[in-house]
Amino acid sequence: MASKKRGSFRKILSGLVAAIAAAPDRTSGPGVSSTASVVAEWPLPPSATLGSSLRLKGIEREIRARLPWTVRKFAKAETGRIVLRMLQADADAFQAASATISRTLEGVEALAVLPREAEDILTISARERHKWLKDGRLKSIGTRTVKMRGRSKSVTFHVFDPRHIEDILDRDLASAWREEDAQEASENRRRGAGKAALTRAGKRERKARGPRNSGKDDAPRPKLEGWDTFEAEGLLR
């Protein structure tokens, strides 16, 4: 079923590219305004964005990264579509950018999910993402290293398979994992409270024994009657 969807998506893309390529050139001739624009659109299926606005912006960044600097600002990701809008005077650049966007969108559904995107899609916190990644419930497909603007050092982070994230979303595993964590935390608190109670009881018992023992040690030793006489007669010599 997924292969059929991808096949139909590619047909739509190829049809758009063909329509753009077959469009008549209106960049010259009488009555053509230098400010007139040409527009191309590509559909963006829900399986690509997974309902996340952050994921949508990530796809936009991925597309722009493959375009020339002078063209990047003209490509925008909107809800359900990618739009390229340029001046008719830039027809050649428009054609080249359209072809690049079409190629990029062919694999957009397999584009790795970034950490912030995963949090937005699954509605989880960064702490939960780190915990579930560490214990293996959230599976990484590798790491990516980038140099953030304004930072001297590069940052390395885990990325995720979009189909894995989609499966977690569809089965609502995040809610189940969150409930498991709450039960585990409650059990840990109960055990900790029990250990603390035993520790306090032991301290009280030691304190109670302490004065009794010290009293016995400090008490004067009993003196035997007639011992002085017994010792004076030299019976122990």
Write a structural description.
The chain is of the alpha+beta class. The chain contains ten helices and five strands; from the N terminus they run H-E-H-H-H-E-E-H-H-H-E-E-H-H-H. It has a three-stranded antiparallel sheet. The protein has a two-stranded antiparallel sheet with strand order 4-5. Strand 2 and strand 3 (about 80-85) form a beta hairpin. It starts with a helix and ends in a 5-residue tail after the last helix. Mean pLDDT is about 80; it is low at about 15-30.
Furnish the topology, listing elements before pairings.
Blueprint: H1 2-22, E1 37-43, H2 46-49, H3 53-65, H4 69-72, E2 75-78, E3 81-87, H5 91-106, H6 115-122, H7 126-134, E4 142-147, E5 154-159, H8 162-170, H9 173-218, H10 227-232
Antiparallel strand pairs: 1-3, 2-3, 4-5
Structural class: alpha+beta
**What is the number of E strands?**
5
| Residues in β-strands, percent | 5-15%
Please estimate the helix content.
55-70%
- Arithmetic mean of pLDDT: 82
Enumerate how many helices there are, as a single number: 10
Shape: rod-shaped
Helix and strand pattern: HEHHHEEHHHEEHHH
Radius of gyration: 38 Å
**Through-space gap between termini:** 112 Å
Characterize the largest beta sheet: strand count, sense, and whether it forms a barrel: 3 strands, antiparallel
Uncertain stretches of 5 or more adjacent residues: 17-32
Spatially, the strands of the biggest sheet line up as: 1-3-2
